[in-house]
Amino acid sequence: TPTVAGFKGKVMTGGKTSYSQDNDAWQRTAGSLTYDQGPVSGVYALTYLNDGNGGTAAKVSLLAGSYTLGNYKFTAGQQKTNFDGSWATLGHDLVVNGVGVGYTQGPWEYNAGYTQLKDQVDSTYKTTQTALTARYNFTKRTSTYVGYGHGKNEGANNKQGIIYGGAALASANTANNGL
User: Which residues are CB-contacts of 155 (< 8 A; sequence separation ≥ 6)?
Assistant: First the structure.
């Protein structure tokens, strides 16, 4: 993919699930625009997921970025999931916000991160996760690490699990800062 002044764009669409299919059932369409120039990196991505009838069922958007200052790397991101059509009754719209900071010293990497998932329909449902990690890189492909994470689910019938924590920055592919 060519890069112009630090920008790179990508578009993807999934094919039909069978040759006889006459609609866009289960199709995925996605696009992203990334920027990577010097100490600044960022991404905006958008994905549409169709239901079995070919209608839009979910829209997932992502906005994330990082800034490198010497040995430090600061990251932040937000992912929004909106359910539409036949999926609107299956789940609540969600927002995931995450921040992280990393420090590199020779082969060592230290990271800290905080992620919060909020239900946009019922504000009593919330999931938070805090993480600390340390990694030692033996080579470019071999490392060992240790980490500590703490997660908390809130709300009597929380529909989210802790697995959702960190989705924003992991998807952004802008950093490994403990998220």
Answer: 119, 122, 124, 125, 126
User: Running DSSP on this structure, what letter comes out for residue 4?
Assistant: B
Predicted confidence (pLDDT) per residue in 77-96, tens digit: 999 988 887 777 766 788 99
The set of residues, in sequence order, having a beta carbon less than 8 Å from that of 106 and lying 6+ positions away, is none
Predicted structure pTM score: 0.76
- Top pLDDT among 11 and 55 is at 11
From 30, 31, 41, 39, select the one nearest 7 (Cα to Cα): 41
Average pLDDT over residues 105-113: 96
Residue 59: C-alpha distances to residues 30, 55, 74, 136, 153 (Å): 10, 11, 27, 38, 24
Please state, in angstroms and rounded to a whole number, the distance separating the CA atoms of residues 43 and 34. Answer: 4
